[in-house]
Amino acid sequence: MKRKLWVLFLGFVLFLVPLAPMAAGQAKSEEPSKLDAQIAKIRAAIGKRVADDKTRVELKLRSGVESKGRVNRAGSNDFTFTDEKSGQQMTFAYADVERVKGRGLSSGAKIGIIAGIVAAAAVVAIVIASRNFDPFKNGIPIRLP
User: Which domains, ranges and CATH numbers included, belong to the chain?
Assistant: First the structure.
């Protein structure tokens, strides 16, 4: 009985193992590739930065090179970038870029800093007010009828 189960199991394995790569290849062709999705995301990020006039960026290219500068123009397949150090204008394809990062503080960080300053000022005001507060400065007047 065990031998028949082993033969049956091996038969299924030998039949199904060659089919697995074909099924995996078919699933990959149906989904958009990860690289295409990343390129679309980079294209949208650069287009939004140019439209919002927040062109200062830090780029990391697929070759490993990191560069800081400004995006001058965004096209459908590429964009023009001016390097901060050399001042040289370069054109990059969206596929050459691995990551686009805006420079400067985000809005959330700016709000957090302002909230911290306001909270610290409120604490200082409360401490100063509590040191000068004396409700019984002139004593407690007692009025007898």
Answer: 28-102 (2.30.30.100)
